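tl;dr need the bound structure. longer version: we got a ligand (dihydroflavine-adenine dinucleotide) that a collaborator sent over and nobodys looked at where it sits. i said id run it. heres the input, straight from their email, havent touched it
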Amino acid sequence: MGRAFVYVILGGGVAAGYAALEFARRGGYSRGELCIISEEAAAPYERPALSKGYLLPEGASRLPGFHTCVGANDELLTTKWYEEQGIELVLGTKVISADVRRKTLLTGTGETISYKTLIIATGARALKLQEFGIQGSDASNICYLRNVDDADKLVNAMKSCPGGNAVVIGGGYIGMECAAALVTNKIRVTMVFPEKHCMGRLFTPKIAEYYENYYTSKGVTFVKGTVLTSFEKDTTGKVTAVILKDGRHLPADMVVIGIGIRANTSLFEGQLVMSMENGGIKVNGQLQTSDSSVYAVGDVAAFPIKLFDGDIRRLEHVDSARRTARHAVASILEASKARDIDYLPFFYSRVFTLSWQFYGDNVGEVVHFGDFTSSSPRFGAYWVNKGRIAGAFLEGGSRDEYEAISVTVRRKAKVVNMAELGKQGLAFAIQE
Ligand code: FDA
Ligand code: NAD
């Protein structure tokens, strides 16, 4: 059995939703020519909500309230919207193999789906503890967080232990955002990670110190420089304690794990050129892979960043998923006018009442600025590389201030005097 489409979007996450929006806005396809195939049961949604609004103790976000493309479109892209737009949703369907030469995908239900043009939007999967040789992370009170099913498991685990203890493994985005959500749900949190400070991939020690102190003031305990080695469980198989490499036993009513992700590339390994150093599918500035009929977007794609002199990066953030998806569709539908994407990397997070944004690349020498002492802070940092601004971070900024730092990074503003830059702080970006 089989079906044939002109355009197939493989994956039903953030990038798929924005690709669909771009197709709908531009037209250029007829009913029955475009489909999204997704392992998930729900139409594409805004994944960032899962570690924020979804975990709130009161008034939590639930589908259909956060389908894509809230904020970018007048209406949410619900299943009704896809129906109206003539875009077929093939949900709850995993693609188990792909044949790029024949332009076919084989689903877990045994169906062969063919395409003329394929957009790979398979995103990434959460790394599992088993991959580090630690067994038992399938217990009912151990939670990962990548999709709605994971988020439901996390909510149930929180509800089952009011006032209890949670151990959060990993000091990255998931660890920080989930720890904040757990505290808001009145659960005591201990965070465990191997680095010297949280958010090691982005934060400087000084920035990290601010957030760690803030979290500590909310009751979070940090255990740094070590990893977990095993779990203690009760007779029902539930985890009761986490055992660390340094010998400590941490009592646990639930455990949240955020130890990074791997891009979902496996269907295409050996068929498309990969970016080994970035762990993704290598694409050009139009998001086209080494096969001209196949594009890759979002977390799975490693694409050239013009601003970084064409350096190839695989970004794991929602803005890049949205923009690469839209750019790929524009490139497909207007091949003759297609231009290379000119993307400014943008990351953000919101925890408790704090909120930060980062633009660019965290390379070079760092200059901090602003007030790091207030509980309603406004501080930041510039990264200066070869005499020019390469990256900028700001906590507690206004819309205009975030815009100003983004423009400064985009312009690679020249820095003459580092000490002066620190003194000027935000004013440097605003005056630019
Ligand atoms: P995404 O993971 O969204 O979608 C991939 C889709 O492909 C899924 O539907 C999956 O089921 C499907 N799929 C994979 N393999 C398949 C197969 N073989 N067959 C069928 N379907 C398949 N970023 C940010 O900038 N700010 C933020 O605040 C957050 N917050 C945040 C919270 C949480 C909990 C997570 C997990 C992630 C974030 N992110 C974020 C990151 C952001 O959500 C991420 O970069 C985008 O979701 C990436 O979009 P993609 O569409 O590429 O992958
Ligand atoms: P991450 O890469 O942000 O952090 C991984 C963390 O895992 C590291 O900081 C490290 O502390 C820890 N770690 C690694 N190996 C470990 C080990 N053996 N034991 C204990 N800790 C270990 O990844 P994440 O936090 O899992 O987030 C997953 C994905 O979700 C990322 O792509 C991230 O960008 C995305 N996300 C983004 C946001 C946001 O942008 N605001 C929010 C949530 C999730």
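gonna send this back to them w/ a short note. The longest strand covers residues 378-385.
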